Structures are given as C-alpha cells and as structure tokens.
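The pair is quoted verbatim below.
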Amino acid sequence: MIEIKTIEPTKGNLKQFTQFQIDLYKGSPYYVPPLISDDVATLSPDVNPAFEFCDAAYFMAFRDGKPVGRIAGIINRQVNERHNTYNARFGFIDFIDDPEVSEALLRNVEEWARRKGMKKLIGPLGFTDLDHEGMLVEGFNELSTMATIYNYPYYPSHLERLGYRKESDWVEFLMEVPDSIPEKHNRIADIVKKKFGLRVLKFKSRKRIKEEYGRALFHLINEAYDGLYEYSPLTERQIDYYIDIYLGLLNLDLVTVIVDKNDALVGVGISMPSMSRALQKSKGKMLPLGWWHLLKGLKGKNDRVDLLLVAVKPEYQNKGVNALLFQDLIPYYIKYGFKHAESNPELETNAKVQGQWDYFENRQHRRRRSFYKNL
C-alpha cells in the first residue's frame, strides 16, 4: 500500500525530499546529483524569492515506511497573470518503476491544483526558468549536466499512461571545439563590430562585473527570453539573489560581455567547466570532501565546457552578434583544453538559437519534454 505524505518545508524534511533522488540514482553513470544545500534553498519559502509570486506543495510516497517517490506542485501566479491562464506545475518528480507510485504522486498534485482553482497541470517545471525543467525522453545514455534533469527511461511512459501529453520539447547539442576560430565566425564578427559599433569587454574582477553589469545582465535575460515557453521574468529581488549565487563562481575568462558605443549591454555569453563528474563524486554534499571535488571541477583539467547562457538584446538578434561571443570564447576554450561544448536546453522551435551550432561539428544528443494534462 502506498502512503502519500505532505512534506512541510522544514530544512530536515527538504533534505529528505532531495536525498530521495540521490539514493534512487545511486550507481547510475549518467545521473548528476544536485548539491543538497542548493535544492533545499530553492524549495525553502524563507530563502527563494520566487515565493513572492509562487505557491508550492511537496509530497512524498512511502511503502512500508520507505520512501519510493516525491513530487512538488507549483503555481507561478506571475506567469498565469501574464498569459491569463490557470496552470499549475509539477516538478522535482522522481519515483521507482511502479505505476501505483507515480499515479498516487500525480493524483495528489492534481487534486491540490484543482483545489487552488487551476485548470491544467504542466511539467516538469520549476519555480522559474533558472530551475531545472523538462523530462528526458531521449539521450538516457548521455552524461547529464549541472543545469539539467536526468531521469530513468521509464518516466515518460508512466506519465503517458496517466493521460499526460506532449506540450513542448527542448533539444540539446554537443559541439566539438574547433582547433581555431572558424574563418566565417571571424569575418561575421568583424563586420558586426564595425556596422553596429560593438566591442567585447573582459573582466578580471568579480566585484567590478557585479557592480557594472550584474543587474544589467539579468535584465538582458528578461528581455532576450521574454516570450519563450512559460518564461517567468526575474524580479529585482530574484536578480539580487542570483547575482550573489552565480557571479562569484565564474571563471571570468569564460564570460564575454558585448556592449555598444555607449557601453550599454547588448549581449553576454557565460560558460563554465563541466561540473558533472565533480558533482557525481560529491554525492550532493559539500562535506567531508565534496568541496574538494567541486574545486577540482572548477580549477582542474576538464575536457568539457557547459554553455550556461547566451543572451542577446532582441533588436540585435539574428544580426551576427553571436559570432562576437564565439570569436572571444573559442581561444579560451582551446587554452583550457576543452574538446567538447555542451549547449543548454533550447526549445525545439527556436531555430535562431540552433542555427548558431551549424558552424561547429555537432550532434543533437538529448531531448526533454514538458507534459500537460487538463484538470
């Protein structure tokens, strides 16, 4: 018999909620665990500023006192108000290969969403677009990344059995880092710089990039990503929160800032050495030695780089600005010994973004999906 418990968002309960996923994937060579402390912060109403406009409920499934599944129900009121919708989200979903478990978890979120007046359930999605989203439906034998969900191949069939259908897909690409900047990239980049008066900025000081472009960077993300599927614009409080979390971690060689003649931000590209192997070794914990593995991941030898973020102001999109980003970044990729570059999930309909990978040897190696069910 399956028992579903509502999980109150205390620190101890949220640790158990997060640890379940790590235990479920123990021994998987492809799964990359989160840092437990990061997920606990994301799920905590007193920490995550997204709770200013989100509601959430957490559930865990138990059999004979042992956890066998988990799920979060989320309502992003900001997105619903923007689009005049009544959508709830499910996320942070994991379960053993037992239809009774997945049905009980989703049924509880469906009932919670109906009580809140929602008419549709979609997911897996997080609170905002900076959380993990999309259930893996292709690429189960590929090493996951820090920024994406990994799930077992049986997950999608469980959802489809319960009446969930495809709403939106994301695709991901693995590129080979070239030995030099492609000639076409150089030519386009030089033309664009002259035509629009653009230039590349590099920083040596994290403090300086935070002060001069930290807020502008996240405002650019809001501009560039507005209109994408279920996008939730970052609030000022969220921007402050993410500036503190992310900008302090970056290798500034791998951050490219493009400005116009008035020093206004036009585009940004942020890359990071792959943390997948380091996170696997950490098992989700900073102590006793997780911090050491993570430090080695950031500073040590690594043949893979993650393209965390590329954003260009809408009025400059499709005008070759991305060529400037890679004209700057490729020499650093070569310097650090990166052989492969991993894209973040991109909507399958976003031809503008996917077109930039045509300059490189690449393969689409993963696909993930958001499902929906009318309530």
Q: What stands out?
A: The first strand starts at residue 3 and ends at 7. The mean pLDDT is 93. Residues 170 and 347 are 4 Å apart (CA to CA).
